[in-house]
Design a protein that fits this description.
The protein is an alpha/beta fold. The chain is built from 8 helices and 7 strands. Helices cover 35% and strands 20% of the residues.
Length: 266
């Protein structure tokens, strides 16, 4: 989870409890155990893996001043190229609502970004937009702080369970993403699916196994062990399908979007 709009700051009187919360997405540490956990997250979590497959080469090409909006625990900061100066922005309620606070994060109330116009060469945010109530304002702020011709990378889920309750508002189609970005002052918009319906099916089965294994119920744990060959098959087929060669992209985990801030007419 990375960012929320100002309208979500008011804490509800009775906050719903997530029955099956995802483990936090954290960067790999320097220890062998932390690196192993990061690797296992990539293997087991197709949402994270599908973002990394697109974000890693995009970050490798960045130069200048780069902003991550809704940075969370900064799980991808280690991928930022050394030629970049990295800044991170997050919501003031991250600690109280979600239990994390990343170091060196600039905090804001979910409204106007605390930066001047046209200062960043690039912006990225991953799995953030579905948690923002006023998407148009948020994207307009992204455009405002980008230099003309600056680039933005974002990822959003499509097939994903209700999460970070109650701050989960939207699921976007390619049509909605294109229109929102065009109206916010972006051009050269490219929307790419993250996997296919085969990826989604495999991911749902893997998620079920994880829920059973972590339930504390001996019957469910035993059942997950007995059916472990199915888990291995889903892992293999799911990773293969992430490259779009198996299944339909019309039903997908989510979308990767790149766009460019429009430049003034000559």
């Amino acid at each position: 989870m990375q960012s929320v709009e100002k309208a979500a700051v008011t804490k509800p009187s009775s906050k719903p409890v997530e029955v099956f919360p995802s483990p936090p997405n954290r960067p790999p540490g320097k220890t062998i155990s932390s690196k192993l956990l990061f690797f296992l997250r990539r293997v087991l979590d197709f949402q994270v893996q599908s973002v990394l497959l697109a974000l890693t080469p995009w970050l490798a090409k960045r130069e200048g001043l780069l902003l991550e909006v809704g940075c969370g625990a900064q799980p991808y900061r280690h991928l930022v190229h050394e030629s970049c100066r990295y800044l991170c922005l997050d919501w003031v309620g991250a600690m109280s609502q979600f239990g994390y606070r990343a170091p060196q994060s600039v905090l804001f109330d979910g409204g106007e970004f605390p930066f001047q116009n046209g200062v960043f060469d690039g912006i990225f945010h991953t799995e953030v937009l579905e948690h923002v109530w006023d998407c148009r304002r948020f994207l307009s702020e992204c455009r405002r702080v980008l230099k003309p011709g600056g680039v933005m990378f974002l990822s959003v889920p499509f097939q994903a369970r209700y999460h970070y309750i109650p701050h989960d508002y939207w699921r976007f189609t390619p049509s909605a993403l294109n229109r929102l970005l065009e109206e916010s002052g972006f051009q050269k918009i490219c929307v790419q699916p993250r996997g296919t319906d085969i990826t989604v099916a495999a991911y749902k089965v893997i998620t079920l196994f994880y829920r059973w294994a972590s339930s504390g119920s001996m019957a469910k744990i035993t059942l997950s062990l007995v059916m472990s060959p199915l888990l291995l098959l889903c892992l293999f087929v799911g990773h293969f399908s992430l490259f779009g060669k198996l299944g339909s992209p019309d039903d997908t985990l989510g979308y990767i979007v790149t766009a460019q801030a429009d430049e003034p007419s000559a």
